[in-house]
Write a structure and sequence with these properties.
Blueprint: H1 2-18, E1 21-26, H2 28-40, E2 44-46, E3 54-61, E4 64-70, E5 75-81, H3 84-95, H4 97-100, E6 117-119, E7 133-144, E8 149-161, E9 164-175, H5 177-183, E10 202-216, E11 219-221, E12 224-243, E13 246-266, E14 271-281, E15 291-292, E16 295-296, E17 303-313
Parallel strand pairs: 1-2, 1-3
Antiparallel strand pairs: 3-4, 4-5, 5-6, 7-8, 7-17, 8-9, 9-10, 10-12, 11-12, 12-13, 13-14, 14-17, 15-16
Length: about 325
């Protein structure tokens, strides 16, 4: 017994000299739970492995928690335990392998049978980080300040830069037939006021496109993210109209600024659903009608209220 106590004291001193830290990665919720249990045992958790630091990868398992513990020879031992407290005890025991070998025989703490020794060729030595780029495709509905209703689509991508997701968004939209054919009004500049009014053939087409630099600040909310975002770039608008056989067209290019609140909620296989609400402003929009071929074209909307619904592949932000 005296010898055992002496060896235990030597092992504890050797462990203290090597440091009480472990490189832990894997499922975020499991890592967070284990961090508290390891802290209670005086063990620090590192995000990346340092020399002589034990490497552990964790992931959920139907029986509890699955551990992959890597040794200095590049091999890993797989263990299944019931809860984070037991997992922390297993990790601590591996940090004191000088005491566990050869005086104690290795054993499983979990109820599962002993798992065989596996190599890095069968499981990843260090799990690859989640992709830093996310790609989105969405449908959009916008209500213009002039009462017009627009339908369109957007394609975008962003990359994580610190807490932000910075990228590029391309949008296309068209004025719907309801506001285009019924709600559009024209002021004719020819003819006499004494002439009896006659039915006019009206046809209006308005198409817009925009290329915008984006910056979103996703904040964690449950399993997803919710946060504000801004967009700034160039907007293009083409207006074509027919009135009593006369054709008119005008094209404008200007600055476009947007702000929005975006909710991204994960589904499966790296996909997430995006729901966004925002407001757009065109500070240099042409507020006066563009006269062409004897009649006036509708003015460019000064702004929009916008809603979008789409899908995202890849995370919009790094989850803590």
């Amino acid at each position: 017994m005296v010898i055992l106590h002496f060896l235990a004291a030597l092992a504890s001193a050797a462990s203290a000299e090597r440091g009480t830290a472990v490189a832990l990665d894997g499922d975020r919720e499991v890592v967070s739970a284990m961090e508290h249990c390891l802290a209670d045992r005086g063990i620090r958790v590192l995000s990346s492995a340092a020399p002589e630091t034990l490497q552990v990868h964790v992931q959920p398992d139907p029986a509890g928690i699955r551990l992959f513990i890597f040794n200095r020879n590049g091999h890993a031992v797989e263990r299944i335990v019931a809860n984070p407290e037991i997992a922390a005890a297993v990790v601590e025991s591996w940090m004191r392998d000088d005491l566990a070998r050869p005086l104690l025989e290795p054993h499983d703490i979990a109820a599962a049978a002993d798992a065989p020794l596996v190599t890095r060729s069968s499981i990843p030595a260090r799990p690859q980080p989640s992709p830093a780029v996310s790609v989105t495709v969405a449908g959009e509905t916008s209500l213009g300040i002039d009462g017009s209703l627009w339908m369109g689509a957007a394609l975008g991508a962003c990359v994580r830069v610190g807490p932000f997701c910075v990228g590029l968004d391309v949008q296309v939209a068209g004025d719907t037939a309801v506001t285009g054919n019924v709600g559009a009004s024209y002021a004719t500049t020819c003819g006499s006021s004494n002439t009896s009014p006659t039915p006019e053939q009206r046809e209006l087409t308005r198409l817009s496109a925009a290329a915008l630099v984006t910056a979103d600040l996703p904040l964690r909310i449950g399993a997803g993210t919710l946060g504000p975002g801004i967009r700034l770039g160039a907007s293009w608008l083409s207006t074509s109209a027919v009135l009593d056989g006369n054709y008119g067209n005008a094209t404008t290019v200007g600055l476009r600024a947007e702000t929005q609140m975006l909710l991204a909620w994960p589904l499966a296989w790296g996909l997430a659903v995006d729901v966004g609400l925002g407001a757009d402003i065109l500070p240099f929009a042409h507020s006066k009608h563009n006269t062409s071929n004897g009649f006036d074209l509708p003015s460019e909307p000064l702004g929009f209220l916008r809603a979008e619904l789409g899908f995202r592949y890849g995370p919009i932000g790094r989850m803590p």
